Amino acid sequence: MEGHSEVRAVVDWKTAGWEELAPHVGRIRLPGWDATTGLVVGSGAALLIDTGSSLREGARLRADVRRLLGAHARVTHIVLTHPHFDHVLGTAAFAGVETYGAVGVDTVLARGRDALYEDAVRHGLPADEAAGATDVLVTPRHRVSGEWTLDLGDGLQVLLANLGPAHTAHDLVVLVPGNPVTVFCGDLVEESGEPQAGPDAAPGHWPAALDRLLALGGEDALYVPGHGSVVNAAFVRAQRATLVARSGVS
């Protein structure tokens, strides 16, 4: 793969069951919790955004990348949008990959294995799968405190932005340039259900995080939620209004 034109010609998203967002950008909605995993393909590099709820899902995603990009292609970078089980437990299926998360997420994952296991089982993941994934849990090597630019080759530069605390204390989003811009929001935005605010959420800061998200992406961007269908800026603003009404903080 020597350039974007060649990458665009070989990535057949639909055949692999993925949704094409741009010629070099796709995503899949995983079964069970409808969590999104994204893929951004550069020149000799591939960025995976979130890794699913188990090692089994991680292995499925690894196989999908091979089907999409060829037998010798592999994921080179992983971004974890936040430290919830349905977005992080598949990471160990990818050996030797450079992994990124919001600053502090490494500590949450390293110290919170038991809580992660319990949360996964409580939501219906079989106990043996939850135990297997948390036993080999991967913590991000690279911690993003503000913004970080990843160069995926041939001029494709992807922006990672730490917008937390909001849905969690450690929310990281991924902005992919193009026409249109694509923004992977993690669970800062949810479409297939109400935005979920667990004990690690910061509801009072969430509306401001969405303001920053909209400022990054702009009016014409595709906003990819952590769960559900791709939405537009108007949907994000409407969800912000819902959160304001819920928290009383504007």
List the helices and strands and how they pair.
Blueprint: H1 4-10, E1 19-22, E2 25-29, E3 36-41, E4 46-49, H2 55-69, E5 77-79, H3 85-88, E6 98-102, H4 105-111, H5 113-122, H6 127-135, E7 142-144, E8 147-151, E9 157-162, E10 172-176, E11 182-184, H7 206-217, E12 222-224, H8 233-247
Parallel strand pairs: 4-5, 5-6, 6-7, 11-12
Antiparallel strand pairs: 1-2, 2-3, 3-4, 8-9, 9-10, 10-11
Helix pairs in contact: 5-6, 7-8
Note down, in words, how this protein is organized.
There is one protein chain. By secondary structure, the chain is α/β, with parallel strands linked by helices. The protein contains 8 helices and 12 strands. The strands form 2 sheets. The chain has a 7-stranded mixed β-sheet, with no helix packed on it. Strands 8-9-10-11-12 form a 5-stranded mixed β-sheet, covered by helices on one side. A hairpin with a 5-residue loop joins strand 10 and strand 11 (about 180-185). Helix 5 runs antiparallel to helix 6. The longest helix is centred in the first third of the chain and has 15 residues, at about 55-70.
